[in-house]
Specification:
- With about 80 residues, the protein is mainly α.
- It has one domain.
- Helix 1 packs parallel to helix 3.
- The longest helix has 23 residues.
């Protein structure tokens, strides 16, 4: 894992999904929150991911995504850096 001392934005990127899933320990959560408070780029990325998740949750209620499409989309995901 990338450390916040070496590359804070890369470290935040690695923690973003677990942060949104509330899977981080207290130290990791505090580091991510501190970086998000200071970095407008990562804060924008966080807001985008948060809104995307909300949209997907609402869309799934209307029409479930086929598992093969979900897997294909997961394979295509790349960092924005």
């Amino acid at each position: 894992m990338t450390s916040f001392a070496d590359d804070p934005c890369a470290a935040c990127e690695e923690l973003l999904q677990p942060f949104l899933d509330r899977e981080l320990n207290e130290t990791e959560r505090a580091q991510a929150e501190e970086h998000l408070a200071l970095c407008s780029y990562c804060r924008k990325r966080y807001r985008f991911e948060e809104h995307l998740r909300r949209y997907v949750r609402q869309a799934v209620v209307a029409e479930p995504m086929p598992p093969e499409l979900k897997a294909r989309l997961a394979e295509l995901r790349t960092p924005l850096l």
